[in-house]
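Thread title: Can someone regenerate the structure for this chain?

I was given the following input by a collaborator and told the matching structure tokens would be attached. They weren't. Posting the sequence so someone can regenerate them.
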Amino acid sequence: MYEGAPNHPEPDRFWDIIDRHGVTIFYTAPTAIRAFMRWGDDYVKKHSLASLRLLGSVGEPINPEAWMWYHTLIGKKRCPIVDTWWQTETGAIMVSPLPGVTGAKPGSCTRPFFGVVPKILDDNGKEVPKGSGGRLFLTQPWPSMLRTLWNDDERYKKQYWSEIPGIYFAGDGARFDKDGYLWVVGRIDDVLNVSLVGYTNAGKSTLFNALTHAGVYAANKLFATLDTTSRKLWVEGGGRVVISDTVGFIRDLPHGLVAAFHATLEATAEADLLLHVVDSASPVREQQMREVDKVLNEIGAGLVPQIVVWNKIDLTGVAAEVEQDDYGRIARVRVSARTGEGLALLRAALAESARVREQNRAAGVRPDIAAGFELQEDPCR
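Best answer:
Regenerated them for you:
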């Protein structure tokens, strides 16, 4: 077992370990797989990976593009992928394909293990038809299930068994497709997790203070923010929002520095939404945006939805405004964190993002899934 930075001293650290030690099973998270993709195929192609016989995915739903890259580049189209769904509380894998037996669909954890009986129920406890989204419950006991929480039976019952009395609520949204394959959408909660990202000196911390009144240190210097700071915010029409301020990015951020800031940047990859703060008065703003996107890809956050915050409009004379993309989604908000101009528009954009996220989860829709992924024949069946 190896635990450590996957990109030090070089981004092929894992592939080197696999070849040197004849590793046969590689089990990792989709966030890591997306980072491997962004680092480039060349790091993978330097190694044979011939010893691998089985790949695994865990921790969050995997997007189809990452699944196909994993299957093709790492598994060489010969290793089955077990996309597993389980929780610490379940004590064992609950839903997973059987290697060489279950046909795979990229992005689906496929079918439950024997004796595991998940159902998708609506808010009234009624089972929804296939193709419809709802809440994921486990409706029958299983051997490894948790029995209680330490010295807190009441919290145990409230946390896991009170949503619909008598059955275990997993806390995830999900749906079954027409073939009976399970597609997990993600955690169901009423909190939108937002991460502020941007090139250093773009005004992230000033914006964070303006939105949350947190009083976080803000300075025109490199790495003024070193540790992630989070604050709760109530947004009218959108509910509760947790906003996290992260380290400012710079050009050619070294792999070692990315590893050192791993804990700080982790919130970015796991966010529901990124506010990409840009110094609109900077003559090199476009280049800085590209550098930030490069680092986001490197840390596995390249697929997290973004709203660009065009900051410092007080220096450019541009009016506060919301811009939409070709699909009617909010793409950019022009603000001044220093004067407060446009902050009401930004709060409204956060509320809209929160509503869209809840609508998607209620419908069992994952933004990373494109329609039409067909059953993949497992080459090792």
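The first strand starts at residue 25 and ends at 28.
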